[in-house]
Amino acid sequence: MFTWFNRKCDFCKRKLKKPSKYIDVNDREINVCYQCVPQAERKALRKKN
Ligand SMILES: [Zn+2]
Questions:
Q1: Distance 19 CA to ligand 1 centre (A)
Q2: Which of 4, 6, 18, 19 has the most beta carbons within 10 angstroms of its beta carbon?
Q3: What are phi and psi of 4, to 5 degrees?
Q4: 26 alpha carbon to ligand 1 midpoint, in Å?
Q5: 3-state DSSP helix/strand/coil percent for the chain, to nearest 5?
Q6: 34 CA to middle of ligand 1, Å?
Q7: What pTM value is reported for the model?
Q8: Ligand 1 center to 4 CA (angstroms)
Q9: pLDDT tens per residue, range 5-47
Q10: Which helix or strand (DSSP H or E) is residue 37 part of?
């Protein structure tokens, strides 16, 4: 079972420190670290809150 502290960023695959949740083109929830948020924004992914 996943818990918040061992999730990994779906872009860089590193551990998440300040994860943001986005919805990808396949309607799946992905976790994005703060460093990769610009990439997610560039891909026009929807932010989940
Ligand atoms: Zn990342």
A1: 9
A2: 19
A3: -60, -30
A4: 19
A5: 20, 25, 55
A6: 7
A7: 0.75
A8: 15
A9: 568 999 999 988 888 999 998 999 999 999 999 999 999 899 9
A10: helix 37-42
